[in-house]
Specification:
With 144 residues, the protein is an alpha+beta fold. It is 22% helix and 14% strand.
């Protein structure tokens, strides 16, 4: 479904104009305007409590602090734009994945808000951050 967007053109109502806009900066196909997807992150917990599941994986890995994951896994060094992807089929199932796979995803998710990945922020694990599936996009060099 396409939503109508009204914009004021500065003229009287008799000079209204309708334009259909069908574009996305975040699409996967190449086009005239495109921000490349850098990485995806997401975990599927099923019936498990997200924070408990990740803390258990952290303990099995012999770590007691989420910040120690920065030394173990390579994370993008620059801020990125984040787009939430509901019910992503590519998310990692916690019950069948290795602790390494779970912790790497948890590190990335802990560095994300709903809108931005920030490597300078502390690794924060909340139910909301761990249950999001996200695509991160590099906006460097993009000007609108």
């Amino acid at each position: 479904m396409i939503a109508a967007v009204w914009a004021n053109t500065g003229g009287p109502a008799s000079r209204r104009r309708t334009e259909g806009v069908r574009a996305s900066l975040l699409r996967t196909s190449s086009g005239p305007v495109h921000m490349p997807r850098v990485i995806r992150a997401g975990l599927r917990f099923g019936d498990r409590e997200p924070i408990d599941a990740v803390l258990e994986a952290l303990a099995r890995a012999g770590l007691d602090d989420a910040e120690m994951l920065r030394e173990r896994y390579l994370a993008p060094p620059a801020p990125l734009l984040v787009r939430i992807v509901p019910n992503a089929a590519w998310s990692v199932p916690v019950d069948s994945a290795s602790d390494d796979a779970v912790l790497e995803q948890a590190l990335l998710l802990g560095l994300c808000t709903a809108f931005q990945y920030d490597p300078a922020r502390p690794v924060l694990w909340t139910r909301a951050s761990l249950t999001r599936c996200v695509e991160m996009h590099d906006a460097a060099g993009f000007y609108a």
